[in-house]
From TrEMBL:
HAMAP family noted in UniProt: RibA
GO biological process, one term: riboflavin biosynthetic process
Pathway: Cofactor biosynthesis; riboflavin biosynthesis; 5-amino-6-(D-ribitylamino)uracil from GTP: step 1/4
Binding of Zn(2+), residues: C214, C225, C227
Cofactor note: Binds 1 zinc ion per subunit.
EC number: 3.5.4.25
Protein name: GTP cyclohydrolase-2
Annotated binding of GTP, by residue: R209, I210, H211, S212, E213, Q230, E252, G253, R254, T274, T309, K314
Family: In the N-terminal section; belongs to the DHBP synthase family.
């Protein structure tokens, strides 16, 4: 392990190394994860073309190549396939979530993944890629190196503080007296937004809605979910109440990103529910963090809220962050003929309170 690579996170410098590694993965380059048993070379199969795979093999030297996927998990950790002779297209086909694990196990022998493969898979998650990684041992130097500790600490570091950037008046169709305050995360990533209706800072316990972005529902009016109705319904309720705060979090698809959400939709079309589809991709059922929501409320001077939600996780997250939820205000809408199973899964598998 190179001495200039720390084994533990060290604030902005460590975060910058993780950011560089994420960008490298997304453009098909290999990165090195400094792991307990030595450097582990990693690349994202969905971003590798044949030229990138040849470069990866050259960096790996004579050692074997392993393909690990978070969805191929046993009680002892992620599983992997030895894939030294396969091409880039074949690697991508292997991690296709439409291919069942049983089919894969019949065709290939799954073995324990290399040590600290979980850190490489987490790096792919952070890049909003499918959590699958091509892995090899390597002693070669690489410009993009991170430690397992830096990867583990990164998300918490990003969510632990937000920078208030700008506030502007934006009259809305459902709430003409509205302002938008933009907050930037510490990694310089996509901004979270606080939509202020009226003057919630003057109310002791304003209505608050934590709303994760949903491109398909919020913007396109998708009928697969109830997100658009919840967004517009919350703004209307706040306008009627005279004030409120809608926290719009940049966490598409329960935190897995838009592309992976569309992959999950494809699996749902084959019969999986929302939870099963996310797990088939290698994600948890819900990958979101509500630390940014609590940080925005604290920056706005809002310490007591009436929360518009059906999700008990949001209640617990705000309470843990020191924001007092004095009332849970139910926030549900009738099914529309397309989202019955989605709403049922929310209640039965995620514990939402309808």
């Amino acid at each position: 392990m190179d001495q200039h690579i720390p084994t533990q996170p060290s604030g902005p410098e460590a975060a910058h190394r993780v950011q560089q590694a994420l960008a490298a993965l997304r453009r098909g380059a290999a990165v090195v994860v400094d792991a307990a048993d030595g450097p582990l070379l990693a690349a994202a199969p969905e971003c590798l073309d044949e030229a990138g795979l040849r470069a990866f093999r050259a960096q790996a030297g004579r050692g074997g190549l392993w393909l690990a996927c978070a969805a191929w998990r046993s009680p002892d950790g992620p599983r992997a396939l030895e894939v030294s002779g396969l091409g880039a297209g074949e690697l991508l086909a292997l991690v296709d979530p439409a291919r069942s694990l049983e089919e894969l196990a019949r065709a290939q022998r799954l073995a324990a993944a290399p040590t600290d493969a979980d850190a490489a898979l987490e790096l792919c998650k952070l890049a909003h890629l499918m959590p699958a990684a091509l892995l090899a041992s390597s002693q070669l130097d690489c410009p993009w190196r991170v430690s397992t500790g830096e990867i583990a600490a990164y998300a918490g570091w990003v969510d632990s503080a937000l920078i208030r950037v700008v506030e502007a008046r934006v009259p809305l169709a459902l709430a003409e007296d509205a302002r938008i305050v933009a907050f930037r995360p510490r990694d310089g990533g996509r901004e979270h937004l606080a939509i202020l209706v009226g003057r919630p800072e003057d109310q002791a316990e304003p209505l608050v809605r934590i709303h994760s972005e949903c491109f398909t529902g919020d913007l396109l009016g998708s009928l697969r979910c109830d997100c658009g109705e919840q967004l517009r319904g919350a703004l209307a309720a706040m306008n009627e109440a005279g004030a409120g705060v809608l926290l719009y979090l940049a966490q598409e698809g329960r935190g897995i990103g838009l592309v992976n959400k569309l992959r999950a939709y494809s699996l749902q079309d084959r019969g999986a529910d929302t939870l099963e589809a996310n797990e088939a991709l290698g994600f948890a059922g819900d990958e979101r963090s509500y630390q940014p929501a609590a940080a925005m409320l604290q920056a706005l001077g809002v310490g007591r809220v009436r929360l518009l939600t059906n999700n008990p996780d949001k209640l617990a997250a705000l309470a843990a962050a020191g924001v007092e939820v004095v009332e849970r205000v139910p926030h549900s809408f009738p099914s529309n003929g397309h989202n019955e199973s989605y709403l049922a899964t929310k209640a039965e598998r995620f514990g939402h309170l309808f």
